[in-house]
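User: Here's a chain of 137 residues. Predict its fold as tokens.
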Amino acid sequence: MKPTSIKIIKGLLIFRLILTGIIVVVFFFIKDLDSSQRTFWTGLKNGIIASLHLDSENTNTIFGYLIGSILIPVILGLLQIKFVNERKYKAMLITVIFDLIFGLSQGFSLFPIIILILILTQPTKNYLKNKEETQSA
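Assistant: Prediction complete.
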């Protein structure tokens, strides 16, 4: 039986991938809006550009930078889901540490910190190392 922490880890990873996908899709559709208008969508576009710390007026360049900065966390997230499903503790730990390092350099490391804490709990270690828990009756 899977520990609750494994279910939480999988849920966080899937949520993170969905959230990342939504950001990319939304920015793709709003990247060509005129920034001089005051609407919700232009404000969202300007907020995404400001969070990337870019001053370029070329929205295609900004979109490429957004894809490039999101690509590594997406690949690491997919690897983490794969390693949880295959029950590989060391590989999972290494990818979470890489994700944490990359997240700290990009400024968004909340998910890797939570996942790292959950991985280091004993039930999660036992599950990922394929150790069966002995239940005393």
